[in-house]
Amino acid sequence: MTHPIAAPATQASATFTDTKPHYAILDGLRGVAAITVVCFHLFEAYATSHVDQRINHGYLAVDFFFILSGFVVGYAYDDRWNTLTIKSFLKRRFIRLHPMVVLGAIIGASIFYLQGCVAWDVSKVSAPRLLVATLLNAGLFPAAPSFEVRGVGEMFPLNGPSWSLLFEYIGTILYALLLRKLPTKALAGVVLAAGCGLAAFAIWGPYGDVCVGFALTPDNMLGGFLRLLFSFSAGLLLSRVFVPIRVKGAFWLGGLALVALAATPRVGGTEHLWLNGLYDTLCCVVFFPLLVYLGASGQTTDSATTRVCKFLGDISYPLYMVHYPFIYWYYAWVKNNNLTFEQSLPGASALVVGSILLAYLCLKLYDEPVRKYLTNRMLGMKR
Predict the structure, then answer these.
(1) Structural domain span for residue 229
(2) Into how many domains does the chain fold?
(3) Would you give the DSSP letter of residue 214?
(4) pTM exceeding the 0.85 threshold for the entire prediction
(5) pLDDT one-digit tens code per residue, 98-110
(6) Is 88 domain-assigned?
(7) What is the number of other CB atoms lying within 10 angstroms of the CB of residue 252?
(8) What region does 264 belong to: left with phi over 0, alpha with psi -120 to 50, or beta?
């Protein structure tokens, strides 16, 4: 696996108050980004390096999700701290995010021994070692080298996307303890400083991109934190200064833009890494905040678009958290049989469609009931 990343479709949907409108188009855009991530990961099986991977910039979805997270959290909670405590806020975020973290780890462990290939020999991993790795993943504790059961450097080797949930929790804690208290000008200063740091990492860093955060290496931890700090803070700032404009067809325009930005081939090749770093910077700093702004400004005007946006928003986070174990399996199938993309197209199609269906089933049969139960037990609220 050339770049064992999990692009982030971190879902940051907050519980809105009844008096606030719901941003249906942002839900739809989140779903589009999540499906794009699944397709991006499929092509890991055919790439010789990240430079020649198709849907090349799918990893930038994590930055889009972090911006969405900051925007939605700020919109939902910024004016509620006269009645909200840090403890209750953190409980709400735990309830919203963690059930699917646990389920993703369980799914990853349950099919782990079906994923053997030349890239990782799963047969050498003992059941007790796998159990410890599962508990670590379910608790969102990065795996130490002795429990990195896949051997490709991921901090969550059973379900790679969990790395961005770890950073999402970091953003949640930063918001509760610090960012929410900052005046708007001070918050803008944080966004500017973090944006400069992110640009420097992307343009002059070692990779020429921001495809980092999934491993416990210094570069990955620095890059992952810069991605989180800029994007989450930028989304929060946007929620404070947001003034909507009239936008027609915001969902369809935004969805096409997201796909186009993700599918853009690598810029500059291996000789001019800085050019791709500049592209990543423009996406994170300019294009994604603009897409969130347009999505929040637009409104669905027909029932079909409303239903599409609702469905995509509903499945986006479960899809993110359940698809990657099957990507490992798919990767092993392709490598073990030396398949081309054309030869494996039926399997790829089945994986995408099956992941979407599984995500919907997980939402209805597991995620929603568990969140309802935890809300009642931990917050004393009936939903």
Answers:
(1) 24-117+163-379
(2) 1
(3) S
(4) yes
(5) 999 999 999 999 9
(6) yes
(7) 15
(8) beta
